[in-house]
User: Fold this.
Amino acid sequence: MKQPNLVKAFKRGLKAYQNGSKAFTLIMDKTADKARNNSVLHVSDLKYTMDLCPRQLFLKLHNAEKQDIEYNRKLMFSQGDVNHLLAAQFIKYGLDDYWTITGIEESVKGLGLIGRYDMSIRGKQGETYIVDFKSSRGGNFKYLDNRGASERDVLQVQGYLAITGYDAGILFYIDREGQNGVRQFAVNYNSLIYDDIRTRVEELQIHATNKAKTLEPSLKVRENKGDNSIYLKSDWRCGYCDYYGVSCEGDMSAEMREISGIVAKQNEEGIYAYKEKYETLLPLIRRLYNEWTTLITIRWTKNKRWD
Ligand code: SF4
Assistant:
């Protein structure tokens, strides 16, 4: 007997949803966001002034080709959208009379950035808040409870505040796996933060027009009684980058990224490859060693861990 292929149908529907199909009226507001214009700077791009790769921002702004996003990641993003939609509806229903929701999914523009925040709330005495929802994996709640909201997320909310002039922000985290429920964190705002956002936008504008160099692996040297051992460690950012191998060669080839042991040795006469297959890496190793030895050498302690 013929059986319907629900998996295939589900994937087809998910793809249509992600392309902004009007068939999904419940989540239309969110799907509108899918058609985001990548060629302009977004408030969420402020995170590139923290620890992300500036070259990645350039590639994004110039619509460079990306790896095809895996189906399971698309599903995860969609799940986040639905969580945000439900959170907005639950909060709207549950807020007491003191507060009024003044906007949901509002677009903002200013300071050279565009964006869309999840919710704005006004109190009876005129207090104004921007709320940003974040769906997060359950394991991340341990860090949230110990250290508070992520600095990247705080910066994003401060970006909305700098544009809108609202009083303060709230980050609202939802556990997409369910166990930890939700958490709320206050985001402060003042004129110093406004100045900081302005400076960061100037930095982004430089990255937007100047393609940054590829990241580089880090070098570690372990001092031994005999010849010192040299290790290369690939940059984690390239491992998570959608442009790796498609529009950017990254810090190392895919094959070399798998290296985990000693790649070279060093003595008074210089640096030599530990194995024949690492000889092609010698120019890179020598340059990194000469340029940054004092900065990036991490010494192997007696406790058998990297300092
Ligand atoms: S592959 Fe690495 S260097 Fe290239 S854009 Fe991505 S993170 Fe940056």
Confidence is low (pLDDT under 50) at residues 28-33.
